[in-house]
Automatic annotation (TrEMBL):
TPR repeat intervals: 61-94
Enzyme class: transferase
GO molecular function: protein-folding chaperone binding; ubiquitin protein ligase activity
Keyword ATP-binding: no
Keywords: Repeat, TPR repeat, Transferase, Ubl conjugation pathway
Enzyme Commission number(s): 2.3.2.27
Protein name: RING-type E3 ubiquitin transferase
Keyword Transport set for record: no
Cross-referenced PROSITE patterns: TPR
Catalyzed reaction equations: S-ubiquitinyl-[E2 ubiquitin-conjugating enzyme]-L-cysteine + [acceptor protein]-L-lysine = [E2 ubiquitin-conjugating enzyme]-L-cysteine + N(6)-ubiquitinyl-[acceptor protein]-L-lysine
GO CC terms of this entry: Z disc
Length: 164
C-alpha cells in the first residue's frame, strides 16, 4: 500500500496536509493527494499539494492544469491563467489547460477569447478521440449565447443613442 493511501484512510481531510510532511512525498504522490483533496472539494489543500509537486518537478504539464482548475473553482482567474499558460508551454496539446483558460475567459466576460480556447479544447478532444461528453460543447454554447447577448445589448444601446 502506498504511503498516501494509508495516511489518507484515517485522517480527516481538514487536518491532513497539516499532518503530512509534504517535502518527503514524491511529486507523483503529491499530485495524487491533490486529486483527493480536489475530489473532496478542498481546493486550497489541493493547490498546496500541486504547488509542492511543481516545486519537486516543474516539467509536468498536468500539475499546472490541475492547479489551474483549483484556481478556477476559487475564482482566482489570474493564477489560473498563469498555470494554463505554463501547462501549454510544457504541452501544447493539453486540452484541459485550453478548457480551463476558456472557463476563465467566460467568467470574466471575454467571450470571443473563451470561444477560441474552448473550440481548441474541443478540437483536441476530437483529434485524440477523448470523450468529454457534452462538457466542452455545452460551455461553448454558453459562451456563444453570452456573446450574442452582449452584442445585442451593445446594439440596443446604439439604437437608443441614435434616437436621442
Amino acid at each position: 500500500m502506498r504511503r498516501y493511501e494509508s495516511v489518507y484512510s484515517f485522517m480527516p481531510a481538514q487536518d491532513e496536509t497539516a499532518r503530512l510532511d509534504l517535502t518527503r512525498l514524491s511529486h507523483s504522490e503529491l499530485k495524487d493527494y491533490g486529486n483527493k483533496f480536489f475530489a473532496a472539494s478542498d481546493c486550497w489543500r489541493a493547490v498546496e499539494c500541486y504547488s509542492h509537486a511543481i516545486k519537486k518537478n516543474g516539467s509536468v504539464s498536468t500539475y499546472y492544469s490541475n492547479r489551474a482548475l483549483c484556481y478556477v473553482q476559487l475564482k482566482q482567474y489570474d493564477k489560473a491563467f498563469a498555470d494554463c499558460r505554463r501547462a501549454l508551454e510544457l504541452d501544447p496539446s493539453n486540452l484541459k489547460a485550453f478548457f480551463f483558460a476558456g472557463q476563465c475567459h467566460l467568467a470574466l466576460g471575454q467571450y470571443d477569447e473563451a470561444i477560441t480556447k474552448l473550440t481548441t479544447a474541443h478540437n483536441l478532444a476530437l483529434e485524440s478521440h477523448r470523450n468529454f461528453g457534452d462538457d466542452i460543447t455545452s460551455v461553448i454554447r454558453v459562451a456563444k449565447w453570452k456573446r450574442f447577448e452582449q452584442l445585442n445589448e451593445k446594439r440596443r444601446q446604439q439604437e437608443i443613442e441614435l434616437q436621442v
